[in-house]
Amino acid sequence: MNDPALLELFTCLQKAGFPLGLAEYHLLLEAINAGFGTRDRTSLAQLCSALWVKSQREEQIFQDYFNQIIPERLEEEFFPKETNSTYIELRANQNKQPTRKKYNIIDGIILFLKLGFVGCVVAIASIFFLKKPTSPNENHSIYGTLVFDKASFFVAQFTANEADKTAKIKIIRTKGNYGAVSAILNVSENISEASRVDTTPQVIQFAHGEKVKTIQIPINNNNKAELDFPITLSLSDPQGGVKLDENSVASLTIQDDDGGIFAGLKPFFDNLELLWFTATCIIFMLLFWKLWKIRQTFTIDEALIPETYTNLSKTMLSAEVIRTMADEIQVAKAIRQSDNQLREFPLIVNDLPVTHRQMKQGWRYLRRFSREGPPSELDLAATIQQVAQYGILLNPVLVPRRTNRIELLLLIDTDGSMVPFHHLCEELVDTALRGGRFSQVRVYYFHNCPDEYLYRDRYHLEAEPIDDCLSNLPKARTVCLIFSDAGAARGGLNSRRRRLTKFFLKELGQYVRYTTWLNPVPRARWETTTAHDIAALVAMFELNRQEFYRAIDILRGRTLR
């Protein structure tokens, strides 16, 4: 299992807005160590989705990132062909072993380059030192030494075209030219096919004072496409006191003129030095290509964190995910102030239109007291009247405790254009639950407008039909507050949203006593948007201290002046 790939996937999902922490990541690792999700790529995806994904929208984003980071073509590299038990044993052994320093691919490349450079230096130096240098003090024979012309680092090389009648071989007499000398030129081929040259040995004779001799070897042109195999030439049987050079061997190559299969490569391999250099370059290219493939497949030191998913090109995400992300993109544009002179400022948690304390105070105004339940409080006035009537304190007069009988229904719009107001949503719910002192608080979530279902969690996992949610409400003491931008943050008119909202408000009025709407977007931006039309259907207020208290007054049954 490739742990860096899982870390990269986890980091990308965090950047995409998933509510993930270290606890969720360690939970996944514990599940993998226990043998879950190790069978194949599909089982791993199911495991990650079960632990990290909380909504259908997050499922779409998760699948896109999972397919990018752990593609199907690399499944064998991520999931070796082992049984689950074997894999678990290996993971257990790895946990017992001491932690090793992670291998850095960049350091590996640098080390490889150093070794390659040293190898090249050694190879070049060995070429120059292959041929034993001649000592300047060595006494040479006055008869000289016979060597082949065109000597290179290794052996002398001669070339001839098959169309020529003869191949010309030049032999030089060096280090002396006294007297007449001779040697035998031997010709041998390494192939069993028909000979391409005349292999009859030839006697080479040098007269007194002669230094250069050119020998012609007849060529047999068979008019067939053949490979250019080298032909070996050698000198033997020196006569007259002459000596043979240590490298008394040469190579003759007959270039085929009938279009052999390697005819196009002939200009590149005229000598062995160029062949050696070309082969070395090819080997280096193959090694670098292999290292690049490894670098692309695995990340050893640290996971590469791509940009936030809203910055990815459209070709990397599915069309459905792009449409879902359009809400966030439009919100980013919509919340910009029209005043170009407005300077950017850091967002402070307490710098909100309504503070935490103001919300708690506002909720406490929303109350309707009644005495219900067993008597538990002393009724002082009734007790005094009893004493005055009977002249003696018989029993204290008790009455039921006075409690707030208001039940609050909170409907919160989440996701999409409401993403920037998540903190306000949390504050609104927290103050209602802790500081409102209501008989009961019911919190439901929706997206854009309620349609068929409401959700008990902000991730839209626990769905409940709207009819079931509303049918259990006691209308006499239930009030409803809706928190949503009503389309003002996105801008524009949405007839479908207006129609669905109107239908829902009509149905809601049958189950609650009073309804009001809080809009986190300023009132000045409601014009020409769906929020302006919805404000005509229900009492809507923007979210600041004064407007929040006015919304509370509506829920108390007071008429605005």
TrEMBL record:
Bilayer-crossing regions: 105-130, 274-292
UniProt keyword terms in alphabetical order: Calcium, Membrane, Repeat, Signal, Transmembrane, Transmembrane helix
Residues in the signal sequence:
none
InterPro entries, sorted: CalX-like_sf, Calx_beta, Uncharacterised_CoxE
The UniProt record lists the Calx-beta domain at 152-258
Q: What is this protein called?
A: VWA domain-containing protein
